[in-house]
């Protein structure tokens, strides 16, 4: 802030209170300032384990001694410590290259946070603000960082994440993070636990053989379409009723319903795109209130699987094409799409999205994605979007959902 009439920056007073948190601290401070005719330039407040730190920056009052005495008396009455510092000007504007860096650990150790902060400093960036997004079942900390372009910072911190055994997501600090977006998810081993084709293979007595081919395909070692057709051929003769049994046995990824429910409240759109089967994914979409679904269709003749697929295979390129189609249908820019997947056939989809997240993925996918989440909770994605665990639980409580109590 600049005093235009005088052609110089105004003199300012920084007030910092620390002590036990209680109702009325902030109002007491501003009551002490109310008669001084000062302008409020900035306010920051945090509470850690019942300890309050309150910072207030105001233009310097004309009768500075009288005001500082009043602030000191107020602090004494509250049983708090206070520091008063006279200076010039407002806070410096944040530099360019603004990013959100979300660090996730289970647990999150001090050594890891120290290493992350060190790499940010080494890159020439500054941490402007830090806030906790969650403390259970993982610890998630969001750092507001400026001074280095997002892509360069992401490269530096990806290597540190691997060394420290934590997840680090680096995203540009833009309005996209706050706007309604489209989430496009893989299904097998992402939205749900396990692989549907292996569950079907158990009914044909060839689960181990199918699982081995699935693993090779997800690692990118063999062509996905070729592998899918060979696996589906082994299902010939399986009763179509097995699809109902498989669906009933499906387990969603922990946090899947919470993620969808929470983002639905914020106007997000959802899609699932799978190299699996529409007989399963269409039912999942209906169950979870998901807008769009795309998957392969198993051919069924006279109540049995024929071992063939109807139409073109939804492969790696098909998933990316579906993402673009769904984004257009939802009226969402591709830069506002978040894609989540775990296998090699998800790579084109992850690259097509504005933010590609490798979720408990194969190394090939982790290396290629914008960020990786390696904890088994799908709702961890919410923390990357700036939504805290406390906000999620408050919204659930208002809607009548019961969430488990945190550990003491």
Give an overview in words.
With 408 residues, the protein is of the alpha/beta class. Strands 12-11-10-9-13-14-15 form a 7-stranded mixed sheet, with helices on both faces. It has a 4-stranded antiparallel sheet with strand order 2-3-1-4, covered by helices on one side. Strand 6 and strand 7 form a beta hairpin. Helix 5 runs antiparallel to helix 6 and helix 5 crosses helix 8.
Largest β sheet strand count, sense and barrel closure: 7 strands, mixed
**What would you call the structural class?**
alpha/beta
**Tally of contiguous helical segments:** 15
Low-confidence stretches: 1-6
Descriptive key words:
408 residues; alpha/beta; seven-stranded mixed sheet; 38% helix; 27% strand; elongated; disordered N terminus
Q: What's this, in brief?
A:
The chain has 408 residues and is an alpha/beta fold.
SSE layout and pairing:
Blueprint: E1 11-20, H1 25-33, E2 40-48, E3 51-59, H2 64-78, E4 81-88, E5 99-105, H3 110-122, E6 126-134, E7 139-146, H4 150-164, E8 167-172, E9 182-185, H5 196-204, H6 207-218, H7 224-233, H8 241-249, H9 256-265, E10 269-277, H10 278-288, E11 292-301, E12 304-310, H11 316-330, E13 337-341, H12 347-352, E14 355-359, H13 363-368, E15 371-373, H14 381-384, H15 389-399
Parallel strand pairs: 9-10, 9-13, 10-11, 13-14, 14-15
Antiparallel strand pairs: 1-3, 1-4, 2-3, 5-7, 5-8, 6-7, 11-12
Helix pairs in contact: 1-2, 3-4, 5-6, 5-8, 6-7
